[in-house]
């Protein structure tokens, strides 16, 4: 799927979720900043970034885990399998799937290459829920505050927190190592 088509589709699917739409546009903006460190995958990353939360759209809701629901929805549209994989696995998906007994559903999709999974997770975790840029630590703290301690998202994000921050740190190291250094 081309980026323009992905952008239009996401805008339509999230039209009644304006904060998710604003967040998704910021995730795309972060993906564009990573273009110098992801090489030929920059378009795949950008398309996956704008689409990553379509699983919240009413047209896509199925299992209730938005990463899996979004990936399934996009697979039904014939979307690139790598884009579906990045949507399926982004951020705390593996931990949420384990909490929800949805690991088999997640396994419908191939786990994406680690460098790209790090990249989309970085983009998501440095984009606030309202579309403002944030640092990943604040973002995770905000998610933990938004969901009650017994909620699956709270439990999954608590367990995933060290791994997620390590993913973000790896991307920051790659950005800092490029000529010109960290662009943000
Ligand atoms: Fe997101």
Kindly provide the name of the CATH class.
Answer: Mainly Alpha
How much of the sequence lies in strands comes to under 5%
On the 0 to 100 scale, the average pLDDT is 95
Separation, N- and C-terminal Cα atoms: 28 Å
Which fold name corresponds to the CATH topology? Answer: Hypothetical protein af1432
**What small molecules accompany the polymer chains?**
fe (ii) ion
Work out the helicity level.
Answer: 55-70%
Would you write up a description of this structure?
- With 184 residues, the protein is an all-alpha fold.
- The protein has helices at residues 3-13, 18-33, 35-38, 42-51, 66-76, 81-89, 93-100, 103-106, 114-125, 136-146, 152-177.
- The protein is globular.
- Helices cover 66% and strands 0% of the residues.
- The chain has a single domain (3-176), classed as Orthogonal Bundle (Hypothetical protein af1432), CATH 1.10.3210.
- Fe (ii) ion (FE2) binds next to helix 2.
List keywords for this structure.
single chain; 184 residues; mainly alpha; Hypothetical protein af1432; 66% helix; globular; binds fe (ii) ion
Describe the protein's topology.
Blueprint: H1 3-13, H2 18-33, H3 35-38, H4 42-51, H5 66-76, H6 81-89, H7 93-100, H8 103-106, H9 114-125, H10 136-146, H11 152-177
Helix pairs in contact: 1-4, 2-4, 2-9, 4-6, 5-6, 7-11, 9-11, 10-11
This protein binds fe (ii) ion (FE2).
């Amino acid at each position: 799927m081309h980026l323009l088509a992905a952008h239009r589709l996401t805008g339509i699917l999230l039209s009644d979720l304006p904060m998710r739409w604003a967040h998704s546009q910021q995730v795309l903006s972060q993906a564009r900043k990573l273009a110098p460190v992801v090489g030929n995958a920059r378009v795949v990353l950008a398309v996956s970034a704008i689409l990553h939360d379509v699983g919240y759209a009413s047209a896509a809701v199925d299992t209730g885990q938005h990463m899996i629901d979004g990936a399934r929805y996009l697979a039904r549209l014939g979307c690139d399998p790598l884009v579906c994989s990045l949507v399926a696995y982004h951020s705390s998906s593996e931990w949420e799937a384990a909490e929800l007994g949805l690991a088999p559903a997640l396994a419908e999709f191939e786990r994406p290459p680690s460098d790209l999974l790090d990249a989309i997770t970085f983009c998501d975790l440095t984009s606030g829920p309202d579309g403002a840029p944030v640092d990943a630590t604040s973002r995770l703290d905000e998610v933990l505050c938004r969901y009650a301690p017994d909620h699956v998202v709270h439990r999954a994000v608590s367990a995933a927190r060290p791994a997620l921050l390590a993913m973000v740190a790896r991307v920051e190291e790659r950005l800092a190592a490029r000529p010109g250094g960290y662009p943000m």
